[in-house]
Structure formats: C-alpha cells, structure tokens
C-alpha cells in the first residue's frame, strides 16, 4: 500500500494514505512496452498485488502500449506513448495514451465478439482489446486530451 510515514516525536509514526503517480513517455517503437510492463509490475508487487494479478496487469499494459504504438501512432518515431500509473490504497489506475490522429475503431472498443466468433474470422486482430477487458477490473476507451486515443484501466488489489 502506498503510504508516507511522518515521524511524530520520539518513535511514533503516523501513516497517511497518498496517491503515487508515475509517468512514462515511451518512443513509438516495439519493445518499449516492456518498460511499462516492468514498471507497473514492480509497483503492483510493492502495493501487495498477488502474482496472478501482476501477470494480468503486465499482459493488459503490454497490449495497450503495443496498440498505441502500432495502431494509434502507426510506428511514427516522432510520436510518444504516455503511460500514467496511479497507485491508490486498493487499486492501480493505468492510462495509456497515443498521439495518433487515427481514432479507435468504435466497434472494437464497444462490442466484444465471443471467442467462437473471433476464431471464425479471417482477420485475427482485435484480441488485445478483448484481453484487456478480460484481465482488468475496469476499462474505458476515450479520446486523449492531446487528441490521440486513450485507454484507462483499473485493477483492484482484490478481485
């Protein structure tokens, strides 16, 4: 749990819950999703997340950052992917934003085909969004303040 400890007199300490924020600005190059995955993993373990939840978090972040690099920023090295990790007492909020001008396919973000329907499709894409929705407790897609795409994901300490 993220806490600041303030010394109070002799050996007494008072715990105050605080919100911790980590911001990453990543190049739009495949491989950098690992930086976000590793950072989130270390933070989640520090917060007390169970190993299975940490693995789910890593997978969801990897998919979100990869989507931002490939689809949002279209591998444009001049653009960045911004990842914000916000640790609260019992949850970790992750926001991934690209700087792309290509909006998200609204059908992919709102309608989730069943697995059997997915396997029958010729286009095997779209699994990343499905995975993100399955692994995280809350997921929301929107337009980022910069005009690009943004996904906000929340994972709770306890499912």
Record keyword descriptors for this entry.
two-stranded antiparallel sheet; Heat Shock Protein 90; 5-stranded antiparallel β-sheet; alpha+beta
List the helices and strands and how they pair.
Layout: E1 3-8, E2 12-17, E3 20-27, H1 33-47, H2 51-72, E4 80-87, E5 91-97, H3 106-110, H4 115-120, H5 127-135, E6 138-143, E7 149-156
Antiparallel strand pairs: 1-2, 3-4, 4-5, 5-7, 6-7
Helix pairs in contact: 1-2, 2-5
Q: Let me know the largest β-sheet.
A: 5 strands, antiparallel
Return the CATH class.
Answer: Alpha Beta
Average of the residue pLDDT scores: 82
Low-pLDDT runs: 1-13
What letter string, H or E per element, gives the SSE order? EEEHHEEHHHEE
Q: What is the fold named in CATH at topology level?
A: Heat Shock Protein 90
Helix content: 25-40%
- How many separate domains? 1
Please provide a written account of the structure.
By secondary structure, the protein is of the alpha+beta class. It has a single domain, classed as 2-Layer Sandwich (Heat Shock Protein 90), CATH 3.30.565.10. The chain is built from five helices and seven strands. The strands form two sheets. The chain has a five-stranded antiparallel β-sheet, covered by helices on one side. The protein has a two-stranded antiparallel ribbon with strand order 1-2. Strand 6 and strand 7 (149-156) form a beta hairpin. Helix 1 (33-47) runs antiparallel to helix 2 (51-72) and helix 2 (51-72) packs antiparallel against helix 5. The longest helix is centred in the middle third of the chain and has 22 residues, at 51-72. It is globular. It starts with a strand and ends with a strand.
């Amino acid at each position: 749990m993220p806490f600041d400890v303030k010394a109070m007199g002799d050996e007494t300490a008072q715990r105050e819950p605080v919100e911790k924020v980590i911001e990453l600005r990543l190049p739009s190059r495949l491989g950098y999703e690992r930086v976000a995955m590793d950072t989130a993993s270390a933070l989640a373990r520090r917060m007390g997340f169970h190993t299975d939840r940490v693995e789910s978090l890593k997978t969801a972040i990897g998919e979100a950052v990869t989507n931002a690099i490939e689809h949002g920023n279209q591998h444009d090295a001049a653009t960045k992917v911004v990842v914000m990790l916000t640790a609260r007492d019992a949850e970790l909020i992750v926001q991934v934003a690209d700087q792309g001008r290509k909006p998200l396919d609204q059908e992919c973000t709102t309608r989730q085909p069943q697995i059997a329907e997915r396997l029958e499709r010729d286009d095997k894409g779209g699994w990343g969004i499905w995975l993100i929705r399955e692994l995280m407790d809350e997921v929301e897609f929107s337009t980022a303040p910069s005009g690009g795409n943004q996904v906000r994901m929340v994972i709770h300490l306890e499912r």
